[in-house]
């Protein structure tokens, strides 16, 4: 007792705690009234709450049902979605906003805001010859619309400068590679442009060019091996393949303007035949792979194209005249200058190539500007643009130079909904300013 008394007196608060009834720290849970269920149902039905919940569930489930379907789509499904406009503005890529200030180029070049939600699957595309004149513009368009692009080029006529603005872009890759050697890449589409295209270059190395296009499979170093390699790659990975053929397949034409149904008038043993016959063989191979191996193919027959990034001294008539005009040299006209050509601006061609690749038709399709000019008329336009006092120098014509060239583009108009938009007088100044800069830089480098 004594001890107990002592403890009590030492810790009186603890004694109080022991004696007082304990109050719980939280108020006790009130038992639900059995009538609360109907009240909750009442709550749900009031102010259309149930309707809002159902609409929410519907939106959510639609999103989750569609999302995996879209990511499983193959390239052809995606292409048809693009045609139907489903993809417009939905190529949601963070990288794109990094490169285009939050905006992106739609597949057809229009600028739109990046939309969240379901988007077209990003395509992985190979462009052979992508460091060249046409190829580099095509690469710009494909990167601009949000795809991944791999360029394969051996820099025979192409230049890194044409692509330098894309270095560092995570959707762009450049591989130094000769298409005569096989390469394996997982891709959805192949634009096959690699080929020494200008007269100077294909005459400079005629043996290599002819080898390029003959279907002699046992010859190793060939450009036809390039076409075969790319067709083989397309077959292996199920990619769509586009061949850039040429109006040269019509040779010195007996039909004017040239329709795709015309079989051409080509000298098979002339100086130019390494190119003309090479491209004809490439077309044959392309169709053989389509018929025999089920490869999805497209064939473009390109007519004379001009624009910025053309080689300065490649022997093509527009670049010749423009470079000579800027350097204050006489413009060289071969023959009497009455032979005709049609000149298409490069962005029109690139639009046509993409429309062909995305469309459902194999071709061949003529892609060119039907505006027809004699060489003398072209020289006059160049004079107007650069220097009205420029002079013309006549030289004997080259062998097998076609007398006339003008595309009939009704097939492309009807089936690809494509036609060129830029006239020679609009396009030429754009090329001239590019040439002026490059010639100035060259002269500065030479210390002139
Ligand atoms: N520009 C035109 O007026 C025109 C007309 C008709 C057809 N084409 C065709 O369009 C395509 C592109 O022509 P372009 O004017 O841009 O020519 P280009 O010479 O500027 O480009 C061709 C590119 O292919 C590359 N190349 C060549 N051989 C190669 C090989 N074996 N392996 C890898 N790369 C190789 C070159 O280095 C170059 O970058 C060519 O196939 C050409 O035949 C062009």
Automatic annotation (TrEMBL):
Similarity comment: family membership: Belongs to the NAD(P)-dependent epimerase/dehydratase family. UDP-glucuronic acid decarboxylase subfamily.
Cofactor or coenzyme needed: NAD(+)
The protein's name: UDP-glucuronate decarboxylase
Topological category with respect to the lipid bilayer: Single-pass type II membrane protein
Domain NAD(P)-binding positions: 127-429
Region (Disordered): 1-33
Annotated Gene3D superfamilies: NAD(P)-binding Rossmann-like Domain (3.40.50.720)
E.C. number: 4.1.1.35
GO cellular component: Golgi cisterna membrane
Single GO term (MF): NAD+ binding
Function as written in the Swiss-Prot or TrEMBL entry: Catalyzes the NAD-dependent decarboxylation of UDP-glucuronic acid to UDP-xylose. Necessary for the biosynthesis of the core tetrasaccharide in glycosaminoglycan biosynthesis.
Broad class of enzyme this protein falls into: lyase
Keywords in alphabetical order: Decarboxylase, Golgi apparatus, Lyase, Membrane, NAD, Transmembrane, Transmembrane helix
GO terms classed as biological process: D-xylose metabolic process
Pathway: Nucleotide-sugar biosynthesis; UDP-alpha-D-xylose biosynthesis; UDP-alpha-D-xylose from UDP-alpha-D-glucuronate: step 1/1
Pfam families: GDP_Man_Dehyd
Compositional bias ranges of the Polar residues kind: 1-11
TM helices/strands, residue ranges: 50-70, 210-231
SUPFAM superfamilies given in the database record: NAD(P)-binding Rossmann-fold domains (SSF51735)
Species of origin: Rubroshorea leprosula
Domain of life: Eukaryota
Subcellular localization(s) per the UniProt record: Golgi apparatus, Golgi stack membrane
């Amino acid at each position: 007792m004594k001890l107990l008394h002592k403890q009590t007196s030492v810790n009186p608060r603890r004694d109080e705690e022991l004696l007082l009834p304990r109050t719980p720290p939280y108020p006790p849970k009130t038992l639900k009234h059995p009538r609360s269920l109907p009240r909750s149902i009442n709550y749900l039905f009031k102010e259309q709450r149930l309707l809002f919940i159902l609409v929410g569930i519907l939106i959510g489930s639609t999103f989750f049902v569609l999302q995996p379907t879209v990511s499983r789509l193959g390239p052809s499904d995606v292409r048809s979605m693009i045609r139907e406009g489903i993809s417009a503005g939905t190529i949601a890529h963070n990288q794109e906003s990094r490169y285009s200030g939050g905006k992106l180029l739609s597949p057809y070049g229009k600028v739109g805001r990046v939309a969240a939600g379901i988007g077209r699957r990003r395509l992985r595309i190979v462009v052979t010859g992508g460091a060249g004149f046409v190829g580099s513009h095509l690469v710009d368009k494909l990167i601009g619309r949000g795809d991944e692009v791999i360029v394969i080029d051996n820099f025979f006529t192409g230049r890194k400068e044409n692509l330098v603005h894309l270095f560092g872009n995570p959707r762009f890759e450049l591989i130094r590679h000769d298409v005569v050697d096989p390469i394996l890449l997982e891709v959805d589409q192949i634009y096959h442009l690699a080929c020494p295209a200008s007269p100077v270059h294909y005459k400079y190395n005629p043996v290599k060019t002819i080898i390029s296009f003959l279907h002699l499979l046992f010859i190793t170093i060939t450009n036809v091996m390039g076409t075969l390699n790319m067709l083989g790659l397309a077959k292996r990975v199920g990619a769509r393949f586009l061949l850039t053929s040429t109006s040269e397949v019509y040779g010195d034409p007996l039909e004017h303007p040239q329709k795709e149904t015309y079989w051409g008038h080509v000298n098979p043993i002339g100086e130019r035949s390494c190119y003309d016959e090479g491209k004809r063989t490439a077309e044959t191979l392309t169709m053989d792979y389509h018929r025999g191996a089920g490869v999805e193919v497209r064939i473009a027959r390109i007519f004379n194209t001009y624009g910025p990034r053309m080689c300065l001294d490649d022997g093509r008539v527009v670049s010749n005249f423009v470079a000579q005009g800027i350097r204050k040299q006489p413009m060289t006209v071969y023959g009497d200058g009455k032979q005709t050509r049609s000149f298409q601006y490069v962005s029109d061609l690139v639009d046509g190539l993409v429309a062909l690749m995305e469309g459902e038709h194999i071709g061949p399709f003529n892609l060119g500007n039907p505006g027809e000019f004699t060489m003398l008329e072209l020289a006059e336009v160049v004079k107007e643009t650069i220097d009205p006092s420029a002079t013309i120098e006549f030289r004997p014509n080259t062998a097998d130079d076609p007398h006339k060239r003008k595309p009939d583009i009704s097939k492309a108009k009807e089936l690809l909904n494509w036609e060129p938009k830029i006239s020679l007088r609009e396009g030429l100044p754009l090329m001239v300013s590019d040439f002026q800069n490059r010639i100035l830089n060259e002269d500065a480098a030479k210390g002139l």
